[in-house]
């Protein structure tokens, strides 16, 4: 199978272009004017405020490129282990830590499988992180929307409510009925 070599070159070129894009994005400076509004978080820090989708895309890019070396190592080890199992665990086909001086190199097809599985694994890790972050963000937004606005003031009242005390004398009872006044008593 000869067409695998151009495919490896295509993926290598795409990877180099994406790396160059990531480096350019890090080094490019964006100048903004800072408004006089002190409550604006971006204005206070002097950094430009990007939309949420751009920040999510940047986070996914960082995680995908950051996890690539690990997924490449795991993919290479997995393909080497598979090759060794197919060749009855011959010492020429053992994975990296166990390889000897006369080890058989991977074919172009095996390199392609290794590279594609490493890229796929990195993208899967970035996608899983994106899903987890979106779930956490939605949960925090639901909690924020469930809280009432303003400060919460709690007034404590005794339970059960205290009943009005009965008048002590008949004269007081008549005065209360005539005036409709409520007798105030002091707490002991």
Description of the structure:
This protein has 5 helices and no strands. Mean pLDDT is 75; it is low at 27-34. 60% of the residues lie in helices and 0% in strands. Helix 1 runs parallel beside helix 4 (108-146). The chain starts with a helix and ends in a 9-residue tail after the last helix. It has 188 residues and is an all-alpha fold.
Q: What is the compact description of this entry?
A:
With 188 residues, this protein is mostly helical.
Helix content: 55-70%
- Main beta sheet: none
Question: Mean pLDDT, rounded to whole units?
Answer: 75
Shape: elongated
- What percent of residues are in strands? under 5%
Question: Given the structure, what is the number of helices?
Answer: 5
From the alpha-carbon coordinates, what is the Rg to the nearest angstrom?
A: 36 Å
Low-confidence stretches: 27-34
Order of helical and strand elements: HHHHH
Number of strands: 0
Secondary-structure class: mainly alpha
Spatial gap, N to C terminus: 100 Å
Features:
single chain; 188 residues; mainly alpha; 5 helices
Secondary structure: elements and pairs:
Blueprint: H1 4-27, H2 41-45, H3 52-86, H4 108-146, H5 170-179
Helix pairs in contact: 1-4, 3-4
């Amino acid at each position: 199978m000869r067409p695998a070599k151009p495919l490896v070159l295509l993926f290598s070129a795409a990877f180099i272009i994406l790396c160059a894009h990531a480096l350019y994005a890090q080094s490019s400076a964006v100048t903004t004017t800072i408004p006089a509004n002190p409550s604006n978080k971006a204005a206070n820090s002097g950094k430009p405020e990007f939309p949420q989708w751009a920040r999510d895309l940047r986070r996914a890019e960082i995680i995908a490129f950051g996890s690539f070396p690990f997924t490449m190592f795991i993919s290479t080890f997995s393909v080497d282990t598979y090759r060794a199992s197919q060749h009855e665990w011959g010492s020429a086909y053992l994975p990296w830590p166990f390889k000897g001086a006369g080890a058989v190199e991977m074919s172009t097809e095996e390199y392609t499988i290794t590279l594609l599985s490493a890229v796929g694994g990195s993208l899967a890790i970035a996608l899983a992180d994106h899903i987890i972050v979106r779930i956490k963000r939605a949960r925090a937004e639901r909690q924020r929307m469930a809280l009432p606005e303003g400060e919460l003031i709690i007034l404590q009242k005794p339970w059960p409510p205290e009943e009005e005390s009965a008048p002590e004398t008949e004269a007081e009872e008549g005065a209360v009925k005539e005036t409709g006044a409520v007798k105030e008593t002091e707490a002991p």
